[in-house]
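1st attempt posting a full record on here, be nice pls
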Amino acid sequence: MAQAFQKIYTKITQLTKATITLNATGVGNDELALVNGKLAQVVRMLGEEVTLQVFGGTEGIPTNAEVVFLGKAPSLKVSDQLAGRFFDAYGNPIDGGPEVEGTEVEIGGPSVNPVRRKQPSEFIATGIAGIDLNNTLVSGQKIPFFADPDQPYNQVMAQVALRANADKIILGGMGLTNDDYLYFRNVFENAGALDRIVSFVNTTDDPAVERLLVPDMALTSAEYFAVEKNEKVLVLLTDMTSYADALSIVSNRMDQIPSKDSMPGSLYSDLAKLYEKSVQFPEGGSITIVAVTTLSGGDITHAIPDNTGYITEGQLFLRRDSDIGKVIVDPFRSLSRLKQLVIGEKTREDHSQVMNAAVRLYADAASAKTKMENGFDLSDYDERCLNYAKDYSNDILAIDVNIDANEMLDTTWGLFDKHFNQEEVSIKKEITDKYWPAS
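the predicted structure (as tokens):
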């Protein structure tokens, strides 16, 4: 409802499926408005010509609809009461619980000043061996999962949420099916982990444009816990392709000239604005971002993963291994650029050498498989490499393998002993003498 002395506009000059345009004065960028009762946000200003994106879509809005500017940008009330709750894209509870009481904070603020940042140095254990062994995560890191739409990436994210050694988990779900939303909710409730998880959810039943609010809502709540409470916060965003598609919808409706793959020319900066919120604070709090980017037809060169790769510090690549019939974290296409900051420092001393030897032997197995497919005879070593690769995929790389950091190292040592001799593994003697299992 309009407040006293609040100016009401009733002349819309342009109307698209996602935006409206009108002439208005005294309006701020990103300011919220009510358009015929629907929430909208300023996305462009050219003099007195103001364009707003209407979150619920413009269907049913006439050109003489009432437009009331609210004088503020989108905001979220932050407090400890956020923990254990599910919210929509506007920060309204969707779990039947009460409204949150707290300090109202505008979302979408700037990233942390570099002088307030500390070099990431804390190990984030996910419990998923394919990540923790080969692509170890570091607090304050930003890294995406690249996955085909039919892969169980949301199940992986749920497992990360349950197993990660973080004080708070913030889930930002964009374009989730109702089944996915209920899956997350049931998994968190059944695991008794709700007290450390905050969820912001946009489903496929909700307007696509609302997805643009979800990451900022998630990151604003993360900043509260990381800055005010000095907590280690892990932010899980799924799926950033849905977010980018929503950006494209608004951009195209505003008649902006599209860039590659029909994405807006601002895609890089739009994504960087979110990912650069990852930070390690000197006081101990941190924000680590793990996001899902689904691939269209497996196209890694599409504008969304392409721009993401320039911003983030590596990627986790999911693929189905036909030899074992499971989805694995692909060691060849996955990379954590910050893992060297914690491997051997915050994990066991043999971590680096075990990781390198395991991937090298897996590469030898790939070469042996190519020889076999081309009709060449295989050596005894080739045969052992192929058998090792199946065990390594099944016992370490598969996404359903949930073990701690030391157990994953011991499991890999066991695979070395099962398939190879010490000379073939080529690990330093002092490390081998200490960790090679007694046969």
